[in-house]
Model the fold of this input.
Amino acid sequence: MRSQRAGRRLHCRIGLRRNYRCSLLRRDVPAISKHRYLPLDVFAGQAGSGNPLGVIFNAATLSSKQMQQIATWLNLSETIFFLPVSVPDADDHIRIFTPRAALPFAGHPSVGAAWAAVPHGLIAHTPSGQLRQQCTAGVLPVEVFDRHGALLVRLRAPRARAIDTDDSCAEALRVACAGLRVSAQPAALWNNGPNWWLLELAEIRAVRQAAPDLVAIARQTQASAACGLAWPFTHPCTMVTQTWSCAPSAPATAFRKTR
Done:
C-alpha cells in the first residue's frame, strides 16, 4: 500500500452549531456534574455538514468510564474531552472517544479540538500559531492561523506503521470485496493511532460505486481490533478514498459509510 509515512497534514474549516451547558448525571455518584458542551462540524464552513464532533470542556472530574458513557449517549462519531495537561511541553490535552471505545488519535477530533481551544480561552493564540496537543498517541504539533477572517487548523498526524496480521483476515476482506477491481497489493492493516485496514482499488470508479459485503467487513475488522476498512485509488495527481466503519449505535454487523 502507498503510505504517507511522515504523517499527513489535515486542513479544515469549522461549522459552529450552538454552545450549551449540560448537566451530566453520574450514575455512580448521587450528584449532578455540570460541563460545557460544544457541538462542532469539522471540515465544513456551515452547521449541519462535515464531520460531527462533540466537545466537552473541564472534564478533569470525569472518569474514563463516565467519558465513555457520555460519548455513547451523545452517539456522535467522536467526542473529545479537555483535560489538564500532564506533560511539560503540551498546551492542551484531549481524550477521544467513539460511542464504543477510546481512540489514541483521530484526525477530525484533533483538528476540532485545536479550533475550540483557542477561541474558548483554553490556550493563548500565539503569533506563530504553533501549539502542542497532548493525546493518547503523544504530543502532536498543531498550527492555528487566520486566513481571510477564518480560523484554520493544520496538524501532522502520527507516523503510520504497518501491523503484522494473519493472512487469512486480509484474504477474507478481499473476498468481502469480490467483484471490485483491486490492485495487486494485498489488504494491509495500518496504524497511525487507530488501526485501519487498507485495500487499494485499481480504478476510481470502483471506489465511488463500491457495494461490498458489509457484514463480512464488520466481522473481520472487529476480529483484528480495527476501526474499519478504507479503499483508496491513488494516482500521481489524485487520491480518492471511501471508508467504512461500525455505526455508533448499530449492532456489530452493521456498517456505515463515513466518506
